[in-house]
Amino acid sequence: MILALTVGTALAQDEGHWSDDDAGWGDEDDGWGEEEDGWGEPSAPAGPVKPPSPLSFDGQVSTEEALWIERLDEEPLAKARQSLDLGVGFSKNGWRARVSGHAEVDPVYLRDGVDPSTRATYGWQARPGEAWVATSFGPVDLSVGRQEVAWGKGNVLGLFDRVNPKDLREPGLADLDDVRLPVTMFKAAFFAGDHKLEAIVVPEADWGYRSPPDGPFGLLPGLLEHQGIGQIVADGLISKEYAWVHLQDRWGAEVIQGFGSWTWSGKGVDLGLYGASALDQQGVIVGGDDPPNLLGDDIAIPIDHRRSTLFGHAGAATVGGTVLRWEAAGELGRAVNVGDVVALDASGLPTFDAQTAEIDAYTGLVGVSYAGLPRTTLDLEVSGGYVPDKPDDMLLPWGELQYAVRAQHKLLRERLALTAAGGGIGPTLAYGLLVRADVAYELADGLRANLGWITYQPGEELGPLVGLETHDRVFGGVHWSF
């Protein structure tokens, strides 16, 4: 089909007498009569044009499977998720709307013996997706409802991407655009030439999804082992039932977040200023006045999502086949965990001893995307920060260099895509890295199959990949978009 289109286009360009613009062959009167097309045959009367429907429908059906390649003997199945997404859109007379939903089920986590928190997080989900209404009048665009917003210029390590919650149940296995979750917001934009002013108010506190403390990608086992509680783990500490408990209510004046930006788009250059009063989506672990004993039956681990002030600049520039991106952000009053999460009390029993501190942090990001090679794109992002009064005993690294790389090559008329991606923390990757490779093939329009592999290397220092030594997996799936 592509070959036929190319040949047809070449003929139209090379042979002037086939052009629609030539006199004697066009639609205008050329001496053959107004009702004839130049061959003496009456032209077909033009019928009424049916206006397009204001409604549109879309969706996706997916099946995704995975194996723990380092646990094939005792626990081979890592995933068998079946999911369905449906959406309907509306556009007419300056009004736009969309409603969508998502449902999934994974039998691997519905089996007997799976703890309630893991079952609720991985076993099944039925949740609303986007649900918004928007309109424009003059230079003003308004929208309200559950929406997704990509804020800033970073592709992976973005410093300003704080508007939407995220699905972090499987770290490293999805691109950033696929892990954002819609959240209720009011959004107003004002356009003046190349300038845009935007204000966003988020009244809903939604923290997305993450692995339970001792779930498939939970940090608790690794934290305990790193802090010398390994024997207690062996005695059955991790067999207890744990769950995250978010201290903030979902709705209320105290959880309202505000985001504002000014952006300017010139020829090959985008610049912007950003500011926000936002809650920390990850949160900090807090012990409270009466910290729970870890040998109890049902352990609720409190997560406090405290507010901080975010401000800075982001920009992008295109130079030939290269896109440069940068961000510089300051964050004031960011809460972090310090010390150990777990300690032994006076009687020798493990108890939460989570302490927090507030820091001011200044972070920068530089990224480059290169598409100058045939059918190949290369992406690299590097970020790092500075904390003026950095605590010596921060639980997880802050301000360390972070890397994200991605390379993709397409073959077979771009139906076959080969992708390799990775990320790491620390100048020498001492805080961990992950590497992923996959191949995807478009079987037909809207029908795609993929197969891949990912490895996790936690590193020597305590980092966000702690405890993932045996989490390497192979994965594959089939996705039909319509």
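The record above closes out task 2.4. Task 2.5 opens with a second protein, given below.
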Amino acid sequence: MSSIPNKPWVEVYSGGSPEMEMQEFHRLAKTMLEIQEKNRVLAGMSHPMRTLHSKILIGVTDAELKIDSGLPASFSVDYFAPASSWKVAVRFSNASGVPKADTLPDMRGIAIKIQAPNRVHHDLLMTNYPVSHARNSRQFVEFAVIAMGDPGSLKQRLDAHFGADEAERMIKTVMQGMRPSQGLHNESFWSRGALLWGSQPVRLILRPMIVDAQTESVAPTTPDGLREAFAQRVKEKPVVYRFAIQPYVNEIETPIEDAAVEWREDVSQPIEVASLIIPPQDILSQQGIVAMDTVDDLAFNPWNGPPAFRPLGNINRARGEVYGASAKNWAKEPRC
């Protein structure tokens, strides 16, 4: 447990105000659209793709988020009530902005769209590494721009821009996060950024209910191996993840604005509150392919949701602007 006193949480806006920060977000969104166009050309596509997480691995429309009957009262917020159940669409993806083989090192993401009451959708986005290499949105975009250049001189250019120590930290985080996956049903996912949960900031974790020891060390051997392995697994039995919440403790150990700092579990113990259940199905069938195409047309954004779950921190505040601009560019008919 933490020995640092718990202090009230605050958001700190870049430039000193929400208005000044939003001006910066407009500039960052423009830069990310330029990267999106470069990725389109690099991939030889006629139409822009998602700027990040371009390759869908799995897409299902019939998942269920089942809230625990013993949900603590402090986490019973809005539609998230004890023993309730909600229909969910799920998109698994590779993190790269250019589609590539599942055999290559990459990070993986999960995007969850919850069908909340009154036709409200609540989007939760997570990645299979607990922290971002970037502390804030400006650092994220600057790193992305530099990474588009010659790989042979990447470290030198990062050193020159961020300083040697910060560049080393960023490279280490990226290298630790980018790895072959041992199967999506064995992956854990983290929100990395904070969000409001009622009146308290939290981060989210999604973990497999059971790690399949038989496939724990089996990495994909084909370009679409992650989808093929998941298809075999979910055809026989449901894939179930446990959904956990980490509460804010203090600004040093659980910062709101710095997405590069891990909220360690010995400081903020995750509290399991729900199960994400993907029922048995044939995702390689015609019906499964239609479902995947449907999910791939969906625009996910952490700002889609009830106000009680408002995203927090600079990176999350930027995502509302950047993701929206990207979706307008890649989606034929963007749908929430």
